[in-house]
């Protein structure tokens, strides 16, 4: 079960990243990425996490291990929790959803600031592989334009663009 969910969430994320990288930045593709990409991954995350916490699904732990102690919020507790297929699938889905949401924000912000798609592509690929690293690069790259003429002080614009 968990391997199937892991595969399904990866397919959803890969398709959404493909749309984000290559489709025109129009409302329909962006909505597709947000709702059928990020939204579906968030729904999968909540459903899988609830199933684990409420005991509705077997986490498929390594042989000989006790049940997951969800109250042990420490490095040792998390290490123990992630010795199960269920926790790995839930944790990975968490990363997929948040990295995709971050990539969508970067793409929209970069479009609003006039960055060429080819430059965005490198940052978006980094974000898809290592979310916080891609976000950090984008924050450094965007800063000059954000503070430039009309950057932070543009009237009638949202902070993201």
Structural class: mainly alpha
Low-confidence stretches: none
H/E element sequence: HHHHHH
Q: How much strand?
A: under 5%
Shape: elongated
Sheet with the most strands, sense and barrel status: none
Mean pLDDT: 88
State the total count of DSSP E strands: 0
CA-to-CA gap between the ends?
A: 41 Å
Q: How much helicity do the residues have? A: over 70%
What are the SSEs and their pairings?
Blueprint lengths: L1 H21 L4 H27 L21 H7 L3 H28 L4 H13 L1 H17 L14
Describe the structure.
There is one protein chain. This protein has helices spanning 2-22, 27-53, 75-81, 85-112, 117-129, 131-147. With 161 residues, the chain is mainly α. Helix 1 (2-22) packs parallel to helix 4, helix 2 packs antiparallel against helix 4 and helix 5 packs antiparallel against helix 6. The model has no long low-confidence stretch (mean pLDDT 88).
Core attributes:
161 residues; mainly alpha; 70% helix; elongated
Give a nutshell description of this structure:
With 161 residues, this protein is mainly alpha-helical. The protein contains six helices and no strands. Helix content is 70%, strand content 0%.
């Amino acid at each position: 079960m968990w391997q199937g969910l892991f595969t399904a969430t990866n397919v959803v994320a890969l398709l959404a990243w493909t749309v984000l990288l290559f489709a025109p930045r129009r409302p329909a593709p962006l909505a597709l990425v947000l709702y059928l990409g990020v939204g579906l991954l968030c729904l999968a995350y909540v459903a899988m996490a609830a199933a684990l916490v409420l005991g509705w699904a077997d986490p498929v732990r390594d042989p000989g291990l006790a049940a997951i102690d969800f109250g042990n919020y420490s490095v040792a507790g998390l290490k123990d929790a992630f010795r199960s297929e269920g926790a790995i699938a839930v944790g990975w889905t968490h990363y997929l959803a948040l990295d995709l949401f971050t990539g969508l924000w970067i793409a929209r912000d970069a479009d609003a600031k006039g960055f060429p798609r080819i430059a965005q592509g490198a940052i978006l690929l980094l974000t898809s592989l290592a979310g916080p690293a891609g976000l950090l690069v984008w924050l450094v790259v965007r800063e000059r334009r954000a503070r430039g003429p009309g950057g932070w002080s543009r009237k009638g614009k949202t902070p993201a663009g």
